[in-house]
Amino acid sequence: MERLSRFRLTLFIVLILVLFSVFFLRLYKLQLAPGDSYIAEKSDSITYQTTVEAARGNLLDRNGNVLVGNRASYNLIIINFVLFSSDEPNENLLKLLELCDELGIEYQTHFPVTPERPYSYDMDSLSQTWQNYFRTFLRYRDYDLDISASTLIKNLREAYKLPDEWTPEQVYKFISVRYELELRSVDGVGLENYTLASDVSAEALAAVMELGVPGVVVESTTVREYYTPYAAHLLGSIGQMDAQEWETYREKGYAMNSLIGKDGIEKAFEDYLHGQSGLKFTTVSSSGEVLEEYFKSVPEPGNNVELTIDIGLQGTAEKALESLILNLRENGVGRKQEGKDAEGGAVVVQQCKTGDILACASYPTYNLATFSEDFKALAEDEYKPLYNRALLAPYPPGSIYKMVTAIASIDFGGIGEYYPITDKGVYSYYADSGFEPVCYVWTSTGTTHGTIDMQQALQESCNYYFYECGRLTYNTYYAETGENPFDIVAKALGLGEPTGIELYEETGTRANAETKAELYEGDEAEWYGADVLQAVIGQSLNRFTPMQMVCYASTLANKGTRYAATFLSRVVSWDYQTLIEEHTPTVASTFEMSDEAIDCYTTGMQLVATKGTAAQYLADYPIPVACKTGTAQWQGVTIGSNTGSDHASFVLYAPADDPEIAIAVYVEKGAQGGNLANVCIPILDAYFSTSSKYETVAEENIAH
Q1: Cα separation, 617 vs 601, whole angstroms
Q2: Half-sphere exposure of residue 698: CA atoms within 13 angstroms, side-chain side
Q3: Which has the higher per-residue pLDDT, 45 or 506?
Q4: Second label for 578, Cα 20 to 30 Å away, from 78, 140, 221, 545?
């Protein structure tokens, strides 16, 4: 009796241990790594996990207008276990694919074989990750890695037991999707259930579900929605990760199928916008009935990013720039009607005392909402609408550089702002070397500016004046210090320097001996007096982006204080209840200038607007403006051909006596810098109309 009791006790303990073992094994399987899509499987049910992407944060402008948000979307998912537990899975899958074709539902696969016979591989269209998956698939099926595409199709047709009456087109589309499904059953691949189609319309969704193919389920998600046609070059887009990006983002906890910012602000502020993905476990029966569903971790939406951009001002800037360039192409400008070959351009608006970018436009542009459909045409357009000229195009600045020359001449060359120089039209100092540059007015009219001082030279943009004071200043200062005085000032004012903007930018080059030595060899690498003359009027190797030009104008407005440019105003939580980060103005550099230098360029720039090269556009403007026009030779830096009209540049800040905003405009082959004031006037009108301190009447000031 005692032995029997002992046996029963032992049996009970063993039973308890077995039950615990089963329990812990089940628990262990439910806690496998996220890469393992299918967690547990019985003959009549399966448990799988799904990464649930969190809603991405919104992008808003400085006034709270939503620029990019999210809308509800639905994807079609295929669950292998259910599909292949059903009767006639091949026939069901083909019916599904043919209905998708009929409804216009696009489904994409990573099957690397071209659809037309004779079949061939198209591995270049795949990322390295998907190429590796394909090799894993071949090894799983014991196929040679160098198997031909035609043989692969033949083998898979036999393996999947496809009917002889199926057409080659039916066979191909079936195999391409069946490949995706089988790949998810291969050990070590770790892909989640196959997404057949994304963002399916409600009508198409209803038709597909009415077909009743086992294993086809609907999964809700969100997609990006664009609420503005403007700022396409800034806002950017999102997309699937490539292999290199996956290596970076996997360490941040991203799932392999996560969408990330690919360019623009979406990329720059990815860490703020991307939420925390959730993990959902689902148990389904072989018939597709959901037996259990729960979240191991709940998705957390991304934060909202409020930008410094004013979308109203952005729209005004884009329209004004487009209008000017199209008008140039049709009518040209001036007596010779130059500028009919105008190609593209950019305009940037910045708050002087904060560095905030209020508007940043590049023309031609595009619509983010239809970007995918339009991509081929955009990529082939001769005017390069995908190119963000504001941040990526380093241009020769032309005469807008002359404030650098004026400051350096006064503070390093000892030349006073009232120093008189007589313009003779042709500058003959280096005539013996065969170099005789001319003043623009001499070229166009055969006249000269006569005897003028530095303020008047800025007013009239007299090249001759700056040739002479540039040569004198350089020779004096370089002899004493071995340094280039103009390079010192240009660098301090932000030209050829990173602006601090969060998006990728080109920094360009400053014209100096070091830059020339880097770009040329032998005698061509030498820095000559002729190089100095070209540099001081904004030519030679000077190359700056419109973003740098507006920072330069702001720094002049601030009398030497340069703020880092920024698109970030603040970051708030997804529900707008918590402030995550708020941008504070950052001083990038300061430059001490004499009162005389400041008086010279501020007075000279105001004279440009009231009496000089921009007077016909701005003389009667109700708010005092300080500006400078520029015309630059193309010198091989245009987007299209290297012939035709000169480039045009323009910088401005206003009000002249208490600056609030700065504007920089650049137009490839725009011919005349003064004409670009027509881009600035609508921007000034829009900006100052929001303040009761100023009144503007746009109709009276726009040149026709």
Answers
A1: 20
A2: 14
A3: 506
A4: 221
Residue corresponding to tokens 């039950």: 19
Cα–Cα distance measured from residue 613 to residue 610, given in angstroms and rounded to the nearest whole number? 9
CA torsion sign, 56 to 57 to 59 to 60? positive
For residue 15, pLDDT over 60 is answered with no
pLDDT at 254: 84
| Buried residues in 143-164 as b, exposed as e (16+ CB within 10 A) | beeeeebeebbeebbeebebee
CA distance 231 to 235: 6
Q: Is the pLDDT of residue 23 over 50?
A: no
- Percent of the chain at pLDDT > 70 equals 90
Contacts of 433-439 with C-beta under 8 Å, sequence gap 24+, read 433/528, 433/530, 435/530, 435/533, 437/463, 437/467, 437/533, 437/534, 438/463, 438/464, 439/463, 439/464
Cβ atoms of 544 and 496 closer than 8 Å? yes
Strands of 458-567 (E only): list them. 561-563
Q: How is residue 549 written in tokens?
A: 């030009």
Structure tokens at 537: 């009027």
pLDDT at 27 over 50: no
CB 397 within 8 A of CB 676: no
Among 294, 253, 314, which residue's Cα sits nearest to residue 50?
A: 294
Q: Which of 508, 543, 511 is nearest to 528 (CA)?
A: 511
* DSSP states of 20-45: HHHHHHHHHHHTS-TT-SEEEE-SSE
Strands 59-60 and 304-307: parallel
* Alpha-carbon separation of residue 115 from 163, 169, 178, 358, 464 (angstroms): 19, 8, 14, 49, 67
- pTM for the model stands at 0.86
First to last CA, the chain: 115
Average pLDDT over residues 563-590: 96
